[in-house]
# Entry
Amino acid sequence: MRTIYLDNNATTQLAPEVIEAMMPYLHDFFGNPSSMHSFGGQVAAKVRDAREQCAALIGCSPDEIIFTSCGTESDNAAIRSALTVQPERRHIVTSRVEHPAVRALCADLATRGYRVTELPVDASGHLDMDHYRESLTPDTAVVSLMWANNETGVIFPVERAAELARERGILFHTDAVQTVGKIPIDLRTNAIDMLSISGHKLHAPKGIGILYVRKGTRFSPFLIGGHQEKGRRGGTENTPGIIALGKACELASRHMDDENTRVKQLRDRLESELLRLIPNSRVNGDTVSRLPNTSNISFEFVEGESILLMLNEYGICASSGSACTSGSLQPSHVLRAMGVPFTMAHGSIRFSLSIYNTGEEIDFVIEKLPPIIETLRRLSPYWTVGDQVCTAQ
Ligand code: PLP
# Structure
């Protein structure tokens, strides 16, 4: 059975060009880039090239790139550094819809005496900027707001938020794990101090990430060890991963137009056809300020997990907005923060596309999903007759 992979916000397939670029550095060129000999030196040169490729994608200087192991490490390193370099400041501003890489860290910091403001979002997944402005205080050490949401694709105005933080002398970090490679980013034109990237979200392998730190930003390393990454992250470099990520960044620049035209059109067709064919369905989150590849749709009165299992029978991979936690199905914290009604939040599915998806694949999903929802609704204590929703007694 063929796989139709529409779960690219979870992880992406390796680009063939990326595999080709990294393979020699797994096989033949295994030298340590810190070695004095030329066998290691040639790897160091390749790492330098990769750093330039990564910097070019986000419009920064290669010196501002620190290679890490993943997006989670980058987020942790940024926030912890901001707190370490300003021990007198004890306040963090973030949002209710952040990824656990930020949210769980902030929850942990709250138990250690830091004050955390989690900004709410409205029904479309957006921040209230007045509320944001009011949350910034002389005690605020760092703001950490995601650029785009992994579940809904909603894009926060982080460039404006970063300006407001800078005006008040507050460090600004953004989790851009879902953003980089999907929409253009130019760090020369904004006030963002730190930014997180994860390789496996943009067709590079798992186990490699980036923390961008703007030149002049005080930084305290998360991993203390050797002199690697100019002393900002100890540990022998993941050279095949770095070389792979460099290639993936170069490809992402090249594919940016395709992502924002063809992929977006595929996503829009999938979304509009599913809404047309399936009653009691709706899109979660703002549909304008949104990543081009993501659609989060709720199908009322059905369980997301059941939909996923039935899609899986056809080889279709997507994600649901609820997670089975300790036996009870909890709707996602993102949809809850947006106030999505319970019956809608439970039946939410996230489709996330990539440049490797085709129109034929989207047609297949449009054909298979409506009868799946119909079947599940017939089994549900709630069901529809025509357009009317009926409730079991
Ligand atoms: N931040 C966001 C918005 C994400 O979507 C993810 C992964 O899903 C992460 C951080 C964590 O990235 P990693 O899996 O590389 O640790």
Q: What stands out?
A: Residues 310 and 372 are 7 Å apart (CA to CA). The domain at 4-10+255-391 is CATH 3.90.1150.10 (Aspartate Aminotransferase, domain 1). Residues 239-277 form the longest helix (39 residues).
